[in-house]
Amino acid sequence: MPKKKIKKGRPLLFESEEEMQEAIDRYFDTAKTPTISGLAYELGFVSRQSFYDYEKRDDFSYTIKRARLRIEMMYEEKLVGNNVAGPVFALKNLGWSDKQEISHSGIPEATLPPIIINTKNG
């Protein structure tokens, strides 16, 4: 009987969503200024991208999205006052934008003077 090919890969950092949520709660309870990088590091990820990749897993997606939203909310709350450059920078890296997009529903018609063609010679 042929052996089954076992797919090898890095073992999961967390056995369950509940276990991950407990680690996230501990991070928020102890972090002075919570950040995405700080959370990823404390959870045991080697990069922010690894953290984001976990969000693609159905069993951890909700938990990670809530944690990211909590950090985003904290930055948003800091947008009051005179020193907002740091929070604005952080929010832009989280997908926020301060550009204004204007869309037109039609093409404006150009108004040109009439063209007069001289057909008489001489």
Describe this structure in words.
The protein is mostly helical and 122 residues long. The chain has a domain at 17-71. It is 46% helix and 0% strand. The chain contains five helices and no strands. The protein has helices spanning 17-30, 36-43, 48-55, 61-77, 85-93.
Brief sketch in words of this structure:
With 122 residues, the chain is mainly alpha-helical.
Topology:
Elements: H1 17-30, H2 36-43, H3 48-55, H4 61-77, H5 85-93
Helix pairs in contact: 1-2, 3-4
Tally of DSSP helical segments = 5
pLDDT averaged residue by residue: 80
**Rg over CA atoms:** 27 Å
Helix content: 40-55%
Strand content: under 5%
What letter string, H or E per element, gives the SSE order?
HHHHH
Number of strands: 0
Assembly type of the shown chains? Answer: single chain
Characterize the biggest β-sheet: none
> Which residues sit in consecutive blocks of at least 5 with pLDDT less than 50?
none
How would you describe the shape?
Answer: elongated
Kindly name the structural category.
Answer: mainly alpha
- Give the N-terminus to C-terminus distance in angstroms: 104 Å
Describe this protein with a few key phrases.
122 residues, elongated, 46% helix, mainly alpha, 0% strand
